[in-house]
Amino acid sequence: MAKENLLLTPGPTCVPPDVLQVMAQPIFHHRTPQYRKLFEKVSTDLKAVFRTAQPVYTFTGSGTLAMEAAVVNFCSPGDEVIVLEAGKFGERWRSIAERYQIKALSLSAPYGSVVPLENLERALKEHPKAKAVYGTLCETSTGTLFDVEAIARLIRKTEAIFVVDAISGLVADRLEMDLWGIDVVVCGSQKGLMLPPGLSFLAVSQKAWKLVPSAKCPRFYTSLQQADAALKQSDTAFTPALTLVLGLKLVLDKLLKEGLEHVWQRTEGLARKTRSSIQKRGLTLFSQHPSNAVTAVNVPPGIDGKKLVSIMRDEKGVTIAGGQGEMTGKIFRIAHFGFVSEADIEKGIEMLTETLEELKTNSVSRAGS
Ligand SMILES: *Cc1c(COP(=O)(O)O)cnc(C)c1O
């Protein structure tokens, strides 16, 4: 089915029509057995998607709320943590930690690359008191995949917990929370989970839970103790975004019916197709370790990257993302996860090719006049 306004952005993503439909039903009350049954089902199915036997907590709020919850529930002011930074979202971990007077030791790498494992190994040795290591599965700002399996292997041997922002990576890139020994996985609803923005999730290991009672950062809405007491009753501590929970049930049904392995493979296929189409057109990829969620492409010389994005959106009906922060105007990003088909990618690339041609012709005629 053709989409009127094709979103090829790394969040929000397109929502399947039947999911939109199910979310259009009248509002019901949440302190009811019917709701508890629904919430129990989604909380169980979420575990299958996070690949964990541990509880997955649902909060009403965007992904960053769950990131904040993953800081305040495990740390105290004055604690030391290690942050793996190679883009906007790695930097966000540091900003949140610093806001709570936590000492964030940044291990940074240039945008488009990943932090070398040796650097982390050394930092873990030099900072044996570090409470946690904060990292990212897919660094959405650069389209870069971190090898969280290898990172987890280093951290598992230490006292520190490993917290992964998988907000864009989950469902697109393989992630095995329990098998790889990841302690906390954070996600949001509007990316691979194909829902509107508004829900965020936090899966928490037993090793991470041990830090919760002594963590002194202030918290109310994001308190895991409250969330856990409620989840034990198949409930949330506060009014959940009910509509989205209804949609989530259907999305999880779809994902588990297809099978996560298949979803990963299909998404990898779309990512490969996107990358090869991009390269066939003489464009170059920005990331050295591309994620299956989103492809970052260098804006060719002489092209106005911001204009490229706005023309595609306003005249061609295809929304892609520009660069964020220091990457503004230098890269553009095409997402290929969630409710995206091969035909959608083809349309996106076709419109990209058209727009680039137009911009080139314009710049040539301007240069010649
Ligand atoms: C989208 C995204 C976020 C931010 O999520 P919000 O829902 O905008 O709060 C954080 N981290 C990554 C990796 C993301 O892709």
* Major sheet size, sense and barrel closure: 7 strands, mixed
Number of helices in the DSSP assignment: 13
Q: Care to count the β-strands?
A: 14
Low-confidence stretches: none
CATH architecture of the largest domain: 3-Layer(aba) Sandwich
Reading the helices and strands in chain order gives EHHEHEHEHEEEHEHEEHHHHEHEEEH
- The value of Rg in angstroms is 21 Å
Query: Ends: how far apart?
Result: 44 Å
* Fraction in beta strands: 15-25%
What is the count of distinct domains?
Answer: 2
Structure, described:
- The longest helix has 27 residues, at 342-368.
- This protein has 13 helices and 14 strands.
- It is globular.
- The strands form 4 sheets. The chain has a 7-stranded mixed β-sheet with strand order 2-10-9-8-5-3-4, sandwiched between helices.
- Helix 2 packs across helix 10 (242-258), helix 5 (117-126) packs parallel to helix 6 (148-156) and helix 12 packs across helix 13 (342-368).
- The chain is of the alpha/beta class and 369 residues long.
- The protein has helices spanning 17-22, 33-50, 63-72, 88-99, 117-126, 148-156, 177-180, 206-209, 224-231, 242-258, 260-280, 305-316, 342-368; strands at 6-7, 56-60, 80-85, 103-108, 132-136, 138-139, 144-145, 161-165, 184-188, 199-204, 294-298, 318-319, 321-322, 331-335.
- It folds into 2 domains: 6-12 and 259-368, Alpha-Beta Complex (Aspartate Aminotransferase, domain 1), CATH 3.90.1150.10; 17-257, Type I PLP-dependent aspartate aminotransferase-like (Major domain) (Aspartate Aminotransferase, domain 2, 3-Layer(aba) Sandwich).
- Bound molecules: pyridoxal-5'-phosphate (PLP).
